[in-house]
Each structure stands twice: as C-alpha cells, then as structure tokens.
Amino acid sequence: MRLKRIDADVVCENDEFVYVKGTEPVLRFVPKFGTRGKRKHVYALVEFKSGGIQSDVMSYEEVNHIRNMAKSKDSDSWKYHWDEMAKKTVFSSYG
C-alpha cells in the first residue's frame, strides 16, 4: 500500500481551522468540543509513504452544489449522512 494516512472531516464555524496552499502547505484542524456550530468546510488529506501530501478543501456551498447536480441528491445517504457523503465528495475531487 502506498498510503501512509488518509483523513477527512467536516469543519464547523466554532472549530479552529487553518488551510494554506503553496510551497509550504498547512492544514490544521482542531474540532471544538461541545457546540461546533454550522458546517462551513469539508477537507480531505492523503499522505503518501513517499512523503508527498495531497489535500483539498471545499466550502459547504461547493459540496451542496455538487450534491444538487447528482442523481442521488435526494437519497437517504445525503439526507441522513451528509457529513460522510461530503467527505467522499472532497476525496473524489482529486481526479
């Protein structure tokens, strides 16, 4: 297996979140315990054994835009498991 680590999560308005792209990328996420607030972003991160890292972040609105274009937009998966479907959506953006 070429992967060292995979991670994805939903970021809410009361969480601590820093995402910087570029030559020295940063992805720092500290979820708030207790009331996290409204969903704001979703991130996905893959770390390879070779040392490379690939990550992406989508806003709540971007995820819902993709959801609304899908045939499954009204499925039970999206209705009852939005967070998990959103994580899958960001992972699939890697192409």
From TrEMBL:
Q: Name one Pfam family in it.
A: RecT
Q: Which GO terms label this protein's molecular function in UniProt?
A: DNA binding
Under InterPro entries, the record lists: RecT_fam (IPR018330), ssDNA_annealing_RecT (IPR004590)
Which one GO biological process term can you cite for this protein? DNA metabolic process
Name of the protein in question = Recombination and repair protein RecT
Q: Which organism is it from?
A: Poriferisphaera corsica
